[in-house]
Amino acid sequence: MTTRPAQPPVDIAAILKDDAVAGSLPADAQRVLAAAAKIEAFDTATVLNAAGQPLARLRLVVAGHIEIIARRASGDEVTLGDIGPGGWATWVGCMSPTPPDHDFYSSADARYIAIPTRAMRAVCEQHPLVYPRIIADLGVRMRHLMEWTGDSVMLGPEQRMAKLIQLLARMHRIVGTSGTLQVTQSRLARMARCSRQSANALLGALEARGLIATAYGRFEILDMTRLQAFIDGDAAVR
Predict the structure, then answer these.
(1) 175-200: b (≥16 Cβ within 10 Å) or e
(2) Which region holds residue 33: left if phi is over 0, alpha if psi is between -120 and 50, else beta?
(3) 7 in helix, strand or coil?
(4) Quick count: other Cβ atoms within 10 Å of Cβ 35?
(5) CA 5 to chain centre
(6) Sequence-separated (6 or more) residues with CB below 8 Å from residue 8
(7) Lowest mean pLDDT across 36-45, 53-62, 74-83, 204-213
(8) Residues pairing with 46 in the sheet
(9) Residue 2 has pLDDT above 70, yes or no
(10) Beta carbons of 105 and 69 less than 8 angstroms apart
(11) What is the spatial distance between Cα 79 and Cα 93, in angstroms, rounded to a whole number?
């Protein structure tokens, strides 16, 4: 029988202090948020907030990711957002009185700092200078969405999958020339709006080009520069 290694403790106050949004608040406001917050941990994929239900907690991702999914009555679904470590889920749900009309899902092996939305709203009302930081955070997410919307139409199938992997790496704040992206093939297929068989073929083609290496539940991005060059249509990478 195998056991998982113990997870290191989460220092809520330190993480909030280092965050671009929460860290811009005065120290006393950060202490208020830290006192109201709790750590959530999920070993398996879990529904955090169902469509039509008010968002009771704003979550800052420490590990894992939160996927935002829209569904139709027919059962069709599409991923609207994927929020990795360092991201907030979500400012719109926190500030708007209207319940979200989509589902929030936690990945497996995930941990979050969960702050009651009422506590966050109260702090923001007392310190309105934090709103530009929130707007900037929303702006980054909107730019990612617009980038994917445009490029996914103009790129060929292999480049489109490469773009999705590259964009997810940026959203999960993977920096440097290489890195590990924790994502399953089935999730990539859903986000790319293709079958699992098609996704598997496209990922195999990218692996054959030496751009990624596949493993269970994750992908190793071997060279971010070469991956970008392939997306841009550099013939040398083909």
Answers:
(1) eeeeeebbbbbebbbbbbebeeeebb
(2) alpha
(3) coil
(4) 10
(5) 24
(6) none
(7) 74-83
(8) 106
(9) no
(10) yes
(11) 16
- Return the CA Rg of the chain: 19
What global pTM score does this model have? 0.81
Lowest mean pLDDT among 15-29, 105-119, 213-227: 213-227
Stretch 96-115: mean pLDDT, rounded? Answer: 92
pLDDT digits (tens, 9 = 90+) for 17-64: 999 999 999 999 999 999 999 999 999 999 999 999 999 999 999 998
SS3 state of residue 42: strand
Domains and CATH numbers, the chain: 12-137 (2.60.120.10), 155-237 (1.10.10.10)
pLDDT tens-digit map of 156-190? 999 999 999 998 888 888 878 888 888 888 888 88
Q: Which residue has the tokens 């709103």?
A: 131
* Cβ-contact 70, 100 below 8 angstroms: no
3-state secondary structure of 159: helix
The amino acid present at 229, given as its one-letter code, is A
Is 1 a residue whose pLDDT tops 50? Answer: no
What are the counts of helices (DSSP H) followed by strands (DSSP E) for the chain? 9, 11
φ, ψ of residue 228 to 5 degrees: the values are: -65, -40
The Cα–Cα gap between 142 and 111 comes to 24
In DSSP notation, 70-113 reads EE-TTS-EEEEEEE-TT-EE-HHHHH-SSPPSSEEEEPSSEEEE
